[in-house]
Structure formats: structure tokens, C-alpha cells
Amino acid sequence: MKLRVGIVATCLMLAGCGERTAVDREPDTRVAVTPDAPSTPDTRDIPVIQEVLLTPMTPSDNIDSPASWTTVDGQRWLIATAKATDRLVVYDGQTGAHLRNVGATGKGAGQFKRPNGIAVVDDLVFVVERDNHRVQVLSLPAFKHVQTFAAEQLQKPYGLWINKAGNGYQVYVTDAYMAAEDAQGEDILPPLDQLDKRVWRFDVARHGDALVAKTIGSFGDATADGALRVVESIWGDPANDRLLIAEEDETYANELKVYDLAGKYAGKTIGRGVFKAQSEGIMLKTCGDGSGWWLTTEQGKGRTVFHLFDRKTLAHTGAVTGAQVANTDGIWLDASTSERFPEGVLYAVHDDQGVVAFDWRDIAKALSLPVCQAP
Question: The domain spanning residue 277 has which CATH number?
């Protein structure tokens, strides 16, 4: 999500004042492919690692978020949402080659309107559609429609995280609804006390080939520190009862808010001192001994920086950047082993046009991380 947020009232700077902020609407497609130069030089000494694959670049798609799935015969599919063309783009996750496109514009089963967040769990792919304000579930490998839910609750959804629980799933969906539009047609953020529905939770039960979704409720803190002003990316860590939610209102802060799985603000944020651009995609690398790292994204127009935080303490571990990757929205960490990626792979969207990949071994080497045994 690329938003320019401007403060429209002096009282926004004062604690306890109702907060109303104008937000430019996100464009449907990128007009300029060349990233803008940063306003101030970035002199941070950040290790550079080489991308190991790059999918075909298709600017007209406006690629937003990736996820991956391994077929029964060991093929890895990399599935990305294409916001401008209302479809899913499927690549070979080992080579980056384009395999197929799925879906078309519409409101029906298997159709999409502004697909954004995506997640794969078991043989299901969950897709958040911003402009159909719903979550659609398809079964793999056929991409057959299984269920659609949440259209009555969601207003302007973007991202999601899924916690597998027993024979079902707990689905968390972020909702960046706005209060109104100003005279210039820009969205206005609601005041703090109306940000209590920034994340919705649904329980999805599996009954054979069918899914049944139940609305559990919504949450969002109303304090200045814990409020979720502009939301998209979210990920969770059930073992530590923790959610990380990216704050994308850059006029307020570039950071991640820490909540628990029940939706209560934990009184802590991370990243404000290290992020120099908008916070974006979030993933979690878990190790067999309970350790691991949060992988988070600093969406620089000229280059993307990936920051790692300790799974348990949330201390900043370090950062890496790629040789090419810039302007990244979504990321996806596939920790499964393969001949090409024996310790896993990090996929990252590149400049709204395609997806790149980083070998986890290169990230670990650059930051001198200890060996992470699979859970």
C-alpha cells in the first residue's frame, strides 16, 4: 500500500485530540517505473545480497503480494496478486518463469476486484479483495472456488494472516476504512476512537471439501500510541501470543505495533528507530528450539531494506538489502526445503511489477545468524 498522508489539523499533534488525516488514494497502476530519488542520502551500511531469481516484469498487473505452495510432485508455485488486472499471477517458484494467470474482473466465484493480500495454508489460497471487500478461498491445484466470506463486515480490506487451529483456521484481516473524503477527493482517517475495527477475526471450519466461516469480532486500540491508523500487513506468532501489524501512516511513524492474538495492544512498538521508509510486508522465521526472527520490510522507493528482529525479545538483529529490489509491498517466506533452496527462500515483490527471491542462506550469512533447525 503506497499512501501519502498529510496532517490537516493542528490538533493532530496534541495527545488526546481526535485524529483526522487526509490520505491520497492509491493509484491503480504505476506510471513511472523508475524509482524516485530519496530526499536525503541513505548512508546506512547495509549488507547487499544478490537476488537469485526474478520473475517476468509486468507493470500493467501492479503486483502486490506473493505466497507459495508445493504441489504433490514437488513443484513450487509462486502465486501473486495483480491489483490492476484483477487476477492471480502464477510463477515457478524455483525459476521465476511465468506459468499461468487465474481469474478475471468481477464479483462472482473465481473473479476478483482489486486482489491484495494473499496467504496459502494446506491446499487453500485465501485472497483479500479490497474493492469486493471480502475474502475469497480457492482450493489448489485447480484454483477452484470454495468459499467467500466477510463482505458484510469489511469495508476496505488489505492484508491477512491465518493461524491454523485444529481442523480449521483463525483468519485475521486488516481493514483500512476511512471516515470521508475532503474537497480534493482525499480520504480522511477516522478519529482514534473510531479505529476499533482495524482488524477483523474470523474462524473458518473445514467440513470435508466445504468451509464455514464465523465472525468472531474486530479490534483496534484507541490510544495515540497503540492506534492502527493505516493498516495492511499483519502476521502472528501463536507460540508467543503475538501479532505484528505494520503502521503505514508515515506522517505518524514508520513502525510495527505489537498486539496479542486476542487483539489487545501490548504497549510496545518496534522499528521506529530503524525504519527510514514505510513499513510493509511481515513474515516469521521459526526454528526448532523456539528461536527465530521476524522479517519486516522497509519500502524504500530506491531500494527495499529487510529488517530482522529477534522472535522472542523483538530486539533489532540487523538488516539486508538486495542488489535490485525496490518499492516492495508484500513478502512471503517459504521455509520448506528444496534442491535449490535447502534452507528456505524469501520472496519479495519488486516495484509493483514482479517478484524476486533471496536464498535464506545468503540472508543468514550476511547477518551471521546461527543455524536454524526446522521445527
Answer: 2.120.10.30
